[in-house]
Amino acid sequence: MALFEEEMDTSPMVSSLLSSLANYTNLPTGSKEHEEAENNEEGARPSKKPVKAPQLGTLMGVYLPCIQNIFGVILFLRMTWMVGVGGVFGSFIIVFMCCSTTMLTAISMSAIATNGVVPAGGSYYMISRSLGPEFGGAVGICFYLGTTFAGAMYILGCIEILLIYIIPQAAIFKIEGLEGPEAELALLNNMRVYGTIVLSFMSLVVFVGVKYVNKLALLFLACVILSIVAVYAGVIKTAMDPPVFPVCLLGNRTLLSKGYDVCAKVVETDNETVTTQLWRTFCDSDSLDATCDEYFTSNNVTEIQGIPGVTSGILAENLFGNYLEKGMFLEKRRVASEESADSPPTGANRYVMADITSFFTLLVGIYFPSVTGIMAGSNRSGDLRDAQKSIPIGTIAAITTTSIVYMSTVVLFGACIEGVVLRDKFGEGVNGNLVIGTLAWPSPWVIVFGSFFSTCGAGLQSLTGAPRLLQAIARDGIIPFLRVFGHGKDNGEPTWALLLTGCICEIGIIIASLDAVAPILSMFFLMCYMFVNLACALQTLLRTPNWRPRFKFYHWALSFLGMSLCLSLMFICSWFYAIIAMGIATCIYKYIEFCGAEKEWGDGIRGISLSAARFALMRLEEGPPHTKNWRPQILVLVSVDAEQNVEQPRLLSLANQLKAGKGLTIVGTSVQGTFLDNYAEAQKADQSLRKLMETEKVKGFPQVVISSNLRDGTSHLIQVGGLGGLKHNTVMVSWPRNWKQPECHQQFRNFIEVVRETTIASLALLVPKNISSYPSNGERFTEGHIDVWWIVHDGGMLMLLPFLLRQHKVWRKCKMRIFTVAQMDDNSIQMKKDLITFLYHLRIDAAVEVVEMHDGDISAYTYEKTLVMEQRSQILKQMHLTKNEKEREIQSITDSSRGSIRRKNPSASRSRPSVDEGASVAEQPEDEVRLIHGRTASSTPASPTSPASPTDGAERGQTGANPEAGKDLFNMKPSPVDVRRMHTAMRLNEVITKKSKEAKLVLLNMPGPPKNRVGNENYMEFLEVLTEGLNRVLLVRGGGREVITIYS
C-alpha cells in the first residue's frame, strides 16, 4: 500500500470503511438520550451499558402499528352511517378510492424507504431528503398539523362514546328537553369541556413518561382487533339467529326510542283500550278522543327488525344512497305514508332526524382519516432490525388487510342492517346503542368499550408522535422561528413541542364536531401523501445515480396516479379546506426559501433544476434571440488587489441598476500565476466576488481564471464566459485610472485590447469613467437628467440603457434627454421631427434636441495639443520598451521611416498644419479611421474630469535626457489624421460640456480603437479630451446588432 500512503488521511482503506458501515445503527432521534436517562435512573455506574441495536421485525415493528393506526374512530362511529347515507355502492367507491390512494402511496414510500439506510424521521425525512428543505419543511409542518388534528379527532371520538353510549348522565350541559340548535349546542359544549379535560390528562401522561404509552400500545391494539372480530362474529350469527333490535316507525318515519314504551298507539288491557306513552307524546291528553298530531292520526305505527340478517335481502334496499338535508326525518323506503302538504311538521323532537346535511364529498372527507396511519412503520424505522425489508412488506400487508376489512364491512353492513338504522348516526332509534354495536356478538358493550379504549390509545399515540415530528423539523433548522421547539428535557423528550401540540389540538377540541375536524386532517394527510408520490415519481424520472431502491415493484406512472388521486380527493373533500392547506404549505415554502435554507440534501428539486437548465440551454442553442427578447447579459470585468478584494465595487452597483432587464450577470476576474500554485488565491477571490455580489444584490455567477498574465486572463474570460446559449453579449470594464502614469502603462494597453476583442466578438461594451463617483444602490436622485448623445447608430444601445436604468429606484426620478449632432448638410428641423417620431414608436419618453456643429478651421491650440500628444507618445515608448518590444519597435520605426521618405516627395508639400479639415481629407490614407465612425459603437459609463495633458515644458524636460531623441521630437510634425481627430474631440467636448455639464449621467458613443497598435496612446488621449469636464460618463459601444425595435 506504499503507493497510497500519502492519501491515507483523506482516503481511508476499504477495510476500515466496510467496518464502519457494518457497525452503523439507525437508532431513532433521542434513543441514546433515553438509554442514558434509564441508566441514570438505575443509579450511577462506572460504565454505561451499550445501546442495544434495534430488534423489531416486520410484524411487531410495522404491521401491527400500522393496523392500530389505520383502524380507528371512524370505523366504529361513522362507518355504518356512511353506508346508510351513501349506499353500499357509493360507500364502496369511497373506500376503494381512499384505499387505492394509500396503497399507491405505500408503494412510493416503500421505494423511497428502501433507497438507502432510513434514519428515524418517517415521512418528513423521506420528503425533505427527496424534495429539498423547502418542500420538506412545508410538508413536514402539514403532516405535523394533520397528526395533531388527528389527536383532536380521536379525543372527540372518545368523548362522544363516553357521553352518548356509556355515561349519558355525565353531561354537564343537559340535552334532555332541548331540541334543534339548543340540543346541538349543549352537545358541543359538553364535547369542549370534556375534550379539554381529556386532552390535559393525555398531555400529562405523555409528558411524564412515554414508556407507559408504548407499553399500553399492545392493549389498545388488542381492543381494536377484538372489536373487529366481534363484528364479524355478529354477522355470522345474523345468518342463523338475527338479534332482536326492534325499530318503531310512524308511517315511514323513525321514532325516538326514548319517546315510547310500546311501539303502538293503544294496547288492550283487561278488554280495555288504553293509550300508550307514544299516544301521549303526539296527543294533548291520554284520552281516546284527544286532539292529536295530524300525521300521527293519518298513519299507522309499525315495528320492524333493525337487524334482519345477512340472508334477509335488505342489501337491495341499501344499495343506493339516501342523502339528507339537515333536519330531515329518517324515513324507510318503500313504506306508504300519508302526509298533508299544508300542515307543517310538528313534534320534531319525537323523530330521529338528520343532524347535518350529507353529500358524497362530505362522506369522502369524513371517511379518509380512517385510512391514514400508513406511516406508522416508517416512523419507527429507527427501531427496525431491517427497515428496508420490513417497511414495504409490513406497510403493504397492513393496507391490504385494512382495505379488505373496510370493503367487506361496507357490504356486510348493507346486507345485515336496516337502512333507517344505518342512517341513525347516534343510535337514537335503537335505545341509544352504538349502531355497529347492535351487530356485534356477544354484546354491544364489546364494541363500545373496545372503541373507547382504541380511541384513547390512538389519541395518546398522536400526542406522542406529533411533538417528535415537530422536534425533528426544529432541529433541522430549516424554519428559524421553530428552533425553540427543538429543545426538551435532558432525556430528549420534546417538552416545548408537546406544549405547542396541546395548544393546536385544543383548536380541534373547540371545533367540537368530529364531522368538522375529520376533513381538516384529511387535507394535511392528503398533501403529505401527494408529495411522497411526487418524490418517488421525480426520482424515477430523473434517474439520479443514487436512486437504487431495493423495492422493485414501483413505477413513475403509479406514483403520478397516486399524486393525482391525492390532489383530486383534497378538492373532493372540501375545496375550501384544500385551498387553505395549500396556502399554509405555500407560505411555509416561501418563508423557508426567503430565509435561505442552508441545506444540501441531494434533493430531487435540484435534479429538476439541472434537467430544466440543460433543456433550456439546448433550446437557446437553436438560434440567436429576437430583438424583442434581447437584454444585456453582462460580463463585469473587475480587478482584485493583493488581498483578493475587488478594487471597483461600484461596477457591481451599476450592473445591478442595469438589471431591470433581468438576464445574466457574470462577474469575472483573473489571478496571475499558475493553477497549481495560485489555486488558494483564486478560491479567495471567488469568495470575495460572491460576498460583494450578495452585498450589492447582484444575481449572477462569479468566475475566476488563473493565467500567466492578466491580459490573457481577461481574454479568456471574454472568450469562455457563460455556457452554451447563455453567454454574455455585453462587457463592462472600468476606465483605467491614472493611465498616463508610467507604472500604469500596461493597464491602458490591456484596456484597449479588451475594446478590440469585444469589437471582433461583436459584443457590446460599457465603459464607466470615474466609477467611484457613481451612486450606490442605496442612494436616490430626486431630480436631474440622463443625457444621451446619439452621434452614430449603435443598434439602439444608447436608447435601451437609460430606459433600463430608470427602472431602478436610484435613477427613477431622472428625466431622459437625447441629443444628436447635425452637420452642415443636415436638415436639423427634419431630424428633430424624425427623432421624436422614432422615440414615440419606441415607447420611450424623452426630450429631444438637435445640436448643429459645423466644421470650422482647426485652431492653433488643437494643432499644439496634437503635437504634444504625439511627442509624449514617443517619449513613453523610449522609456518603457522591454527587450521584445524594442525589437518590434525597430521594425515599426523602419516602416514609418519608409513612409516618411514617401511623404517627402513634392506631392506631400500640400499637407500643411494650417489647412482646413476639408482639404486634409483628400490627403488622408485609405486605412484612416475617423474619431467617431462606424455602425458598431457600443455603450459604457464615463467619468469626471480627466487629468490635464502634460505641458510643453514638461515634455521638453523629459526629452532632455536623450538629446538625439529630443532633436527628432522637436522636428516632429503632427499627423493630419490625429489633428482632425483631436479637432473633432475638442469640438464635441465643447458642445457636450455646454449642454450636459449638470447632468447626472452622460451616455456617449465610444469611438472605435485604432487598427494600428502604434496609436494606442493617442486613442486614450482622444477619449480623455472627449469626456473632459464631465462628472459621470458611460462610454457605449454597440455589438453590431439591433437591440431595440418599434414592433410589438
From TrEMBL:
Alphabetized UniProt keyword annotations: Cell membrane, Chloride, Glycoprotein, Ion transport, Membrane, Phosphoprotein, Potassium, Potassium transport, Symport, Transmembrane, Transmembrane helix, Transport
One GO molecular-function entry: potassium:chloride symporter activity
Biased composition regions of type Low complexity, renumbered to the chain: 936-951
Pfam families: AA_permease, SLC12
Biased composition range(s): Basic and acidic residues: 31-45
Disordered, as annotated region: 29-51, 880-974
Residue intervals of the SLC12A transporter C-terminal domain: 649-763, 781-910, 981-1048
Location of the protein in the cell: Cell membrane
All copies of domain Amino acid permease/ SLC12A, residue ranges: 62-235, 346-635
Cell membrane keyword on record: yes
Membrane topology summary: Multi-pass membrane protein
Keyword Ubl conjugation part of the UniProt annotation: no
GO (cellular component) term, any one: synapse
GO biological process: cell volume homeostasis; chemical synaptic transmission; chloride ion homeostasis; potassium ion homeostasis; potassium ion import across plasma membrane
Transmembrane segments: 56-77, 89-112, 124-145, 152-173, 193-210, 217-236, 356-376, 396-422, 496-514, 520-541, 553-578
Catalytic activity: K(+)(in) + chloride(in) = K(+)(out) + chloride(out)
Family statement drawn from the similarity comment of this UniProt entry: Belongs to the SLC12A transporter family. K/Cl co-transporter subfamily.
Protein name per Swiss-Prot or TrEMBL: Solute carrier family 12 member 5b
Taxonomic source organism: Gasterosteus aculeatus aculeatus
